[in-house]
Amino acid sequence: MSRQPLIRARGLHVSFVSRDATIAAVNGIDLDLNEGQVLCVLGESGSGKSVTLRALMRLNPKAKTVMRGELNVAGHDMMALPESKLPALRGKVVSMIFQEPMTALDPVFPIGRQIVETIVRHDGVSKADARQRALDLLDLVQIPSAKMRLNAYPHELSGGLRQRAMIAMAISCRPRLLLADEPTTALDATVQIQVLLLLRQLQEELGMGVVFVTHDLGVAGEIADRVAVMYAGRIVEQGSVSSLLARPLHPYTQGLLGATVQPGSRGARLTTIPGAPPDLRRPMQGCAFAPRCPQAEESCRAAVPEFCHPAPGRTVRCIKVMETL
Amino acid sequence: MLSYIARRILYMIPIALAVSLVCFLLIHLAPGDPIAAMVPPDTPPDVVAQVRSDYGLDRSLPVQFELWLEHVVHGDLGMSITRGRPILPDLIVASGNTLILAVTGGILGFVLGCVFGGIAGVCRGTWIDRVLLGAAVAGVSIPHYWLGMVLVIIFSVGMHLLPAMGAGPGTSSVWAWDWAHIQFLILPALTLCVIPAGLVTRTVRGLVSDIMSQDYITTLRGKGLRWDGIARHVFLNAAPTVIAVMGLQLANLMGGSILVETVFAWPGTGSMLNDAIFQRDFPTLQAATLVLALFFVVLNLAVDLVQTAIDPRISRS
Amino acid sequence: MTAIPKDAGVSVAADAQAWEPENSYWRGVGRRLLRDRTTLVCSAVLLAILVIIVLAPWIAPYEPNVGRAIIRLKPIGFAGHVLGTDELGRDMLTRLIYGGRYSWLIGISPVLMAFAIGGILGIVAGFAGGKVNMAIMRVTDVFYAFPSVLLAVSVSGMIGAGILNVILSLTFVFIPPIIRVAESVTTGVRNLEYVQAARSTGASPLSIIFTHVLPNVLGPVFVYATGLVGLSMIVASGLSFLGLGVKPPDPEWGLMLSSLRTAIYNQPLIATLPGACIFVTSMCFNFVSDGLRTAMDVRA
Lengths: 325, 317, 300
Fold this sequence. Notes:
The complex is a heterotrimer of chains A (325), B (317) and C (300).
Chain A: E1 7-17, E2 22-33, E3 38-42, H1 49-56, E4 65-73, E5 76-77, H2 86-89, E6 94-97, H3 101-104, H4 111-123, H5 127-140, H6 146-149, H7 159-171, E7 177-181, H8 189-206, E8 209-214, H9 217-223, E9 226-231, E10 234-240, H10 241-246, H11 251-259, H12 298-302, E11 308-311, E12 314-316, H13 319-324
Parallel strand pairs in A: 3-8, 3-9, 6-7, 7-8
Antiparallel strand pairs in A: 1-2, 1-4, 4-5, 9-10, 10-12, 11-12
Chain B: H1 2-29, H2 34-38, H3 45-54, H4 61-73, H5 87-122, H6 127-141, H7 144-158, H8 179-212, H9 215-222, H10 227-255, H11 258-264, H12 269-278, H13 282-310
Chain C: H1 8-15, H2 22-35, H3 37-54, H4 56-59, H5 92-128, H6 130-144, H7 148-159, H8 163-190, H9 193-200, H10 205-241, H11 253-259, H12 268-296
């Protein structure tokens, strides 16, 4: 196993620039991931988690996106790479699966052809060999009647099967890093678990690193080794999944856990986090969560809290936590 | 799939019949006695009587329609008043000429439209897009009979590069694909292609722009396809609609070629229609309308079937 | 040639939005229109042309049908005749101005009449549904099976030349597409929830039509109709070009184009003037129609 980390991001900023406004979607995050590890990025809509994921392979719309900071993925300096060299990496070294397979797959191509297309593109094998590999992949992701399904169109498959097909396409060239953007959110609950287990299984078999974006704590608990909680474009807390879920330190994480429906909570009031996420078009002073935080005070609004390390492998951005150290 | 085709063809039959009915009734729009609209003025009375009974002009309208339909189905489209001979053979020759013109103009317009529309769709919102869209609107707004005249003025009268009229040297109406004939084709085809080019540009632009904003384009970028791989997907997603539009355009070019053919004296169905109108040759007018309209119906059906065949999203149950 | 897009109704139907507070929507439309420079310029041009042709008797320097053979086909800038003279020695500027009256008349009236007739039929079909809808739409389909120019030419060819006949045959040609669009939009609106709510409270069909359906249907159908004006002018003038429309010596742009055809050898510029007028008018109408459609499309 190579010593070099799979992902190393320092001070990553991503903004979208348009005629009317500049949206600071990601405001300086640091990320680390080693080979074979699973990192879950947890956050609500608008937290910047999907933008971060896409930034890892520079998939955000070229015309509007401005990125700065340091980003190293699988040994490649992503900030320095020219646009023309990126397609060679995508799908081969780094692969991505998306939330809604119905719209993420081309409706006029059978799924077999879409998988073959990826294989031929990167591994240069013949169409016949690629087709055989596609067949094996469909078996690997546990799609029944794989031979028939190769010629099926996306709309002819159920949601779960579509998502498996997309997974098959993403792992077809054995990427070292798999990026997953809420792949189970659009699925029925029973199917969700199956797909999650499948992903975990594949990750172990193929030794891929995985960055998994979700808003669902349960999912994070199921599949991740480490969790990074994002809010308003910043990572507010990071740690191993067990310690973070057992002892959340950041008020936002605490709020998220408190807002989750647990067995045994019947009859008890659900705590909610009041307010709404901030408008990312306006630059923020101080801690972005302060307006909604039950523990906020003056000093919170003065400056963006720095990282502190309350325990090995744990980082938190909160003045109150820092004070307790 | 086969049953779908069969059903569509079946559905076409009542439309074809209804279209025939309209064409049949056309002759009754002409002022005066229908018989005067069907035979030359100096026909001997026994011939007149024969025609009257053949077409049942003394009997009720439905019977007349039936008799007329019988004639048509057997290939008898009537006699031209001015030329004194059966219409169908002349119509076939003329249709061939119009087909040459329409297909050439159609292909030209199609190619231009796809290229401009594709560029505009990819560059949506930029100045390139605005210029191309403006050109497309201008193209659709040009009275093509005027454009024909302008082109003749520039290339024929002004520069003596191309001939102004006709479809070939001399009076022979046999077409050949040599320069002597093709040079007659250039200006009319160019004139004819402008409106379809404009229409196809707008359609393709809308389609391409739509497709480029779809989620699966992000997936394709995400799996490392370069612009050529992505273009293939865009193309195949746009193809069904573009082909449908082009098919309809071709049909319209065939049916609506009269104005361009008049300007260039191109011996096609349009000229035939024009002459028929002026010589008050109503049988020819009716026959030409019928043939062109039926051709339009059949072409519509063909476009429908092709579209269904290549677009997997359309249900064929 | 020119085709009336078959699926126009579908996209237009999508424009029939659920009801919004009247002033905010229309004010939004107005604002977007004012920002659209192309539409503004084209509207101004159209307005200018309209004013000129309406004021023809007071503005035109000469009589349109009076010519002096001695000054046949004089070029642009000739003494006393800014735009030259035609093949019968008549002043071009005057003929163009008066010709505009006829061209605009035969170009716009068919669309207006088709809008009225087709609109009513389409709304009835869309609202009534069932057998009435089927009857109207099947008949529409049959006429849709003809290319528009062909139908116009054939009908005109049969009933003869003349202004009224041109207007009649073109109205006839444009009624089917407007029926289609109106029916499609009406069906879309009819199924919207607020209409169903009104029906459930027992409001009479007529009142529903007037208060809810009409305002939302007339807009998109009107915009579609404006898109037809450009085409109508070209075809109407085209019919005159073929001799099926306005009769000489009355001036009309298409007719003038036809009679000046032989002049392309000595005065090419003059021969093309009437066509340029048709082109400019048609293009402006098309741009304005496009601008209207974009301004009214809230989703854009």
